[in-house]
Structure formats: structure tokens, C-alpha cells
Design a protein that fits this description.
The protein has 212 residues and is an alpha/beta fold. It has nine helices and seven strands, in the order E-H-E-H-H-H-E-H-E-H-E-E-H-H-E-H. The strands form two sheets. A five-stranded parallel sheet has the order 2-3-1-4-7, sandwiched between helices. Strands 5-6 form a two-stranded antiparallel ribbon. The radius of gyration is 16 Å and the shape is globular. The mean pLDDT is 95. The structure holds BIS(adenosine)-5'-pentaphosphate. BIS(adenosine)-5'-pentaphosphate binds next to helix 1, helix 2, helix 3, strand 6 and helix 9. BIS(adenosine)-5'-pentaphosphate (AP5) binds next to helix 1, helix 2, helix 3, strand 6 and helix 9.
């Protein structure tokens, strides 16, 4: 199954993507996680992306399209994949269509996570993330040991783009560039809106139902 998770910053895309990929046995392709790793490793890609990400702005389409095209070439994606954070603009969606056409496949479902802005802002202000595996933690999904990732024992950190002024910029980028994508995919009948408010377990069950 080939899936896209759409939704504003803080909607719970990463949280649910990690659960769903474990459940369905398909990889999560998170452009945000890939870019953060490149920044942490100080690669040329990371150097280009860092200032934009820290400011809450989108990285140029051609850079992100290249990352996804390369990731989709991996044998891990042969049985399906979950795109988390991509596409985010209409040109990215058009580029994705071309990548999938070349590989003879298509998007089966787009899960559009719907969460009110005040809830997004509250969630992002309390988020801590594992710098190694990208797992997000929050008030409703705390780590077993405070400040430490359950999966790999790394010390959790706050993301620089979760500062309030950057969150405002990210929400603006979402509203002006990414929200248009629901219309793009709705025309194909593959979009399912999912209420992202509730416990992490409740939202997961709604997503599973939406995939049927
Ligand atoms: P990216 O990493 O994709 O960030 P985002 O889309 O802004 O999404 P977030 O990771 O902030 O939120 P999420 O929806 O995954 O929520 P989460 O599960 O963490 O992108 C970062 C940056 O990279 C961009 O700004 C851009 O610069 C660049 N970039 C990436 N992709 C790009 C692209 N395609 N094009 C251009 N640039 C790109 O949850 C949030 C919090 O809520 C956590 O604390 C979590 O524990 C908590 N939570 C989750 N679910 C619940 C629940 N049900 N109840 C209560 N709390 C919950």
C-alpha cells in the first residue's frame, strides 16, 4: 500500500506514521527526518536546508524531490511506503506523480489529519524529539524514562523550529502552500479526512478504519 500523510505541523503525522509502518510493515519516508539527519551530519544538503528549516520555511522543491526520488528507489519501498511530510506543494505533487508513473505505481490513500490550530500550537510547544530516530514525545505520549528515547536511549531535544515564532511561520507555509494538496488528491477520490484529536490510540484506530 502506498500512502501519504497530510496535515499541518503538530497534527501527529510522525507519531502515527511510526505506529502504522510498524503495523503494516512498510517504511516511513519522512522528508523532515531525512533533512534533520542531513543537518546533524553537516552534509552539503544539510548546510543548504538548515537556515530555511530553522526559520520554519520550506526547503526548495527540487532538493526535496531529489531526496524522495532516491528514497523510493530503495528495495525497502517495493511493497509500499508511507510518505510523511511530502508532498507539500503542488509542484512536489506533480513531481511525485511522475516518479510513481515511472515506477508503474500510484498513491492508494491520502490520510488528511485534521486538528484545530490551538491544539497544534499547544502540542508543538511541549514536544521533545529523539535526535537519532525522530520519535516525537509529548504530554499524552511521554517516554518511559523522562527525557530519554524509549527506542534507543538518546537524550530527547526540543526542535529549533518549535519556537513559537517558527511555529507561526510553519502554519503559514502550511495554509498557503500545503493545504491546497487535499483538493489535488480529492479529485482522485483517495483522500480520507481523519480527526486527529483524541488519544494516540484512538487516532490510530481511525486511520486503520480509513484505510479499509
Ligand atoms: P517536518 O518534520 O515534516 O515537520 P511538520 O510537517 O511541520 O510536522 P511535525 O513533525 O512538526 O508534526 P507532526 O504532524 O509529525 O506531529 P508529531 O507526530 O510530531 O518538516 C520540518 C521542516 O522540514 C519543514 O518546516 C521544512 O523546512 C522541511 N521540510 C520537510 N519536508 C519538506 C518538503 N516536502 N518540502 C519542503 N520542505 C520540507 O506530533 C506533534 C506533537 O504532538 C508531539 O509532541 C506528539 O507527541 C504529540 N501528539 C501526537 N499525537 C497526539 C495526540 N493524538 N494527542 C496528543 N498529543 C499528540
Amino acid at each position: 500500500m502506498n500512502l501519504i500523510f497530510l496535515g499541518p505541523p503538530g497534527a501527529g503525522k510522525g507519531t502515527q506514521a511510526k505506529r502504522l509502518t510498524a503495523r503494516l510493515g512498510i517504511p516511513q519516508l519522512s522528508t523532515g527526518d531525512i533533512l534533520r539527519k542531513a543537518v546533524a551530519d553537516g552534509t552539503p544538503l544539510g548546510q543548504k536546508a538548515k537556515a530555511l528549516m530553522d526559520a520554519g520555511k520550506l526547503v526548495p522543491d527540487e532538493i526535496v524531490n531529489g531526496i524522495v526520488d532516491e528514497a523510493l528507489a530503495s528495495s525497502a519501498c517495493a511493497k509500499g511506503f508511507l510518505l510523511d511530510g511530502f508532498p507539500r506543494t503542488i509542484p512536489q505533487a506533480v513531481a511525485l506523480d511522475e516518479m510513481l508513473q515511472r515506477r508503474g505505481c500510484k498513491i492508494d490513500r491520502v490520510i488528511n489529519m485534521v486538528v484545530p490550530t490551538e491544539v497544534l500550537v499547544e502540542r508543538l510547544s511541549g514536544r521533545r524529539t529523539c535526535p537519532k530516530c525522530g520519535t516525537p514525545y509529548g504530554k499524552d505520549s511521554p517516554p518511559k524514562k523522562p527525557g530519554i528515547c524509549d527506542k534507543d536511549g538518546e537524550k530527547l531535544v526540543a526542535r529549533p523550529d518549535d519556537e513559537p515564532d517558527r511555529v507561526r511561520q510553519r502554519l503559514l507555509e502550511y495554509a498557503t502552500k500545503t493545504a491546497l494538496l487535499t483538493g489535488y488528491y480529492k479529485a482522485r477520490g483517495v483522500v480520507r479526512d481523519v480527526d486527529g484529536v483524541g488519544t494516540v490510540d484512538e487516532v490510530e484506530e481511525r486511520i486503520i478504519r480509513a484505510l479499509k
